[in-house]
Amino acid sequence: MEIAVPTSAAERNRSLARGIELLRAFRPGDDLLGNGELAERTGLARPTVSRLAQTLADGGLLERDRRRRAYRLAAPVLSLAHTMRTGSPLLAAAAPPMRAEAQRLKVNVGLAAADRDEMVYLESFRFGRRVEWRNVVAGQRVPMELTSLGRAWLAAVPDGERAAVLARLRVKRRGRWGALAHEIAHAIDAVRRDGWCWASWQPQVVALATPIALPDRPVVVLNMSTSGELDAEHAARRLSGPLLALRARLLAQLAPPS
After folding, report:
1. Helices 177-194 and 148-156, interaxial angle, to 10°?
2. Can you tell me the distance from the alpha carbon of 168 to that of 166, in angstroms, rounded to the nearest whole number?
3. For residues 50 and 62, what is the distance between their CA atoms, to the nearest angstrom?
4. Residue 136 in contact with residue 148, Cβ under 8 Å?
5. For range 29-52, the mean pLDDT
6. How far apart are CA 125 and CA 66, in angstroms?
7. In what order do the strands lie in the sheet with 141-143?
8. How far apart are CA 57 and CA 33, in angstroms?
9. Residue 239: beta bridge partners?
10. Maximal CA-CA distance, the chain
């Protein structure tokens, strides 16, 4: 079946951007979303949502449930994610030493990238004592403003990019922003001074993170976390050295030849 597309370049670009927003509207735990829910989550008009959703279904990225008049993500979306993971030089280089360090230290080791004002796990190896606490898998999102991952990322990106994200977070967390802004500023100072920062946004879990910035690549963030009775000071003493050593190893492997 041939899919009709807008004729002008500007309209094509606008339709593509809106279609991407429609796909972004699906979050973990969602099965079916109707046009009304998609319109509410994206801010798009219902007729626009209806047209875009039909186009995405015709293209195979959404599956249409005609009886319930709703859509779910289709199998090719998972295939795209698998292609990204298996084709990534970063993950190919990072996964073996991350796994080895997680096993050696009996801690959790993760790698994440930013998506707007959240962090998305690219890889995670979990060998902590409390594995039942949270099963983190590739693709899972965590809040940027609360986590060591997000705060380390904010420390490493250009000033303009950081300011834009902080402006969004200020609106999102307006009731708590004063305290959060202070914690984020402290973490940014720590990354610039020591190379890493820490946060404890879940009970009895302390996480350290350090950014990895490579030429012509988005900033990614490496973290190690431990659960149990260790406080931040003890966790930092135990994990900061191995974390920075693993970061240096990855940078040496991934840096382009001079």
Report:
1. 60
2. 5
3. 12
4. no
5. 96
6. 40
7. 141-143, 118-126, 108-115, 220-227, 205-212, 197-202
8. 13
9. none
10. 62
Helix axis angle, 9-24 relative to 35-42, nearest 10°?
100
Rounded CA-CA distance 19/33 in Å is 14
Tens-place pLDDT, residues 200-255? 988 888 999 999 999 889 999 999 998 866 688 888 999 999 999 999 999 999 88
Asked if residues 130 and 192 have their Cβ atoms less than 8 Å apart, the reply is no
Q: Which of 102, 136, 96, 100 is nearest to 119 (CA)?
A: 136
SS3 114: strand
Count CB-CB contacts under 10 A for residue 43: 9
Mean pLDDT within 119-125:
96
Question: In sequence order, what E strands does the chain have?
Answer: 33-34, 62-65, 70-73, 108-115, 118-126, 141-143, 197-202, 205-212, 220-227
pLDDT at 179: 94
